[in-house]
C-alpha cells in the first residue's frame, strides 16, 4: 500500500486450522527479511502460547513471490523443520486463505483509514487490527467463533481424559 513516505508491504502467517494470524510483518522493501520476521513472530507466538513448533508438523504455504522462493527462507524453514509449499504462479485460488485474509485486511483497515503517512502508522494499526481479528472478530469458516477461542477449544478437547467403558 502507498504511504506518504514509501510503499509498505505486509506479510501475514495464518494458521489454516484456526484462521488465527500468528505472525505478521510490515516493511518498505519486499525482501526475504520481512517474510522471515513474520515467520519468527509466528514461531515466537506459538512458544508463548506453550504450543511450540515441532519439526515435521508444519507446512509454510506461500505464493511464488521472490521473497518466498529465496534460499534464505528455504534454509530457515528447513532448520525449523517446517515444510515449504509454494503455490502455482498466477493462481489466486491456490492461496485462497491468504488472499481472503489480505482482502479483509485491506477492506476493514487499509482502505477506510487512508491516507497512510508512515510505515510506523501502518505497523501500529496492523497490530491493533490483528488483535481484533484474532480476539474479537467472529469467523464463519470455523463456526462463528473467534480464532483464539477455536484453538482453545481444540486444545481443551485434546487434553480431556478419554473415557472408556467396559462391559
UniProtKB/TrEMBL annotation:
Bilayer-crossing regions: none
Domain Integrase catalytic, chain residue ranges per copy: 1-155
UniProt-listed InterPro entries: Integrase_cat-core, RNaseH-like_sf, RNaseH_sf, Transposase_IS3/IS150/IS904
Source taxon at top rank: Bacteria
PANTHER family named among the record's database cross-references: TRANSPOSASE INSF FOR INSERTION SEQUENCE IS3B-RELATED (PTHR46889), TRANSPOSASE INSO FOR INSERTION SEQUENCE ELEMENT IS911B-RELATED (PTHR46889:SF4)
Name assigned to this protein: DDE-type integrase/transposase/recombinase
Native source species: Streptomyces caeni
Amino acid at each position: 500500500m502507498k504511504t506518504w513516505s514509501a510503499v509498505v508491504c505486509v506479510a501475514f502467517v495464518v494458521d489454516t486450522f484456526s484462521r488465527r494470524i500468528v505472525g505478521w510483518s510490515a516493511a518498505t522493501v519486499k525482501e526475504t527479511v520481512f517474510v522471515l520476521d513474520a515467520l519468527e513472530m509466528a514461531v515466537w507466538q506459538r512458544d508463548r502460547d506453550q504450543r511450540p513448533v515441532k519439526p515435521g508438523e508444519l507446512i509454510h504455504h506461500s505464493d511464488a513471490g521472490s521473497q518466498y522462493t529465496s534460499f534464505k527462507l528455504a534454509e530457515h524453514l528447513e532448520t525449523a523443520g517446517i515444510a515449504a509449499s509454494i503455490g502455482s504462479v498466477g493462481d489466486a485460488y491456490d492461496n485462497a486463505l491468504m488472499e481472503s485474509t489480505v482482502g479483509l485486511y485491506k477492506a476493514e483497515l487499509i482502505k477506510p483509514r487512508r491516507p497512510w503517512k508512515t510505515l510506523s502508522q501502518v505497523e501500529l494499526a496492523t497490530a491493533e487490527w490483528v488483535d481484533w481479528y484474532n480476539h474479537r472478530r467472529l469467523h464463519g469458516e470455523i463456526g462463528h467463533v473467534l480464532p483464539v477461542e477455536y484453538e482453545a477449544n481444540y486444545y481443551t478437547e485434546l487434553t480431556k481424559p478419554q473415557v472408556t467403558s467396559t462391559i
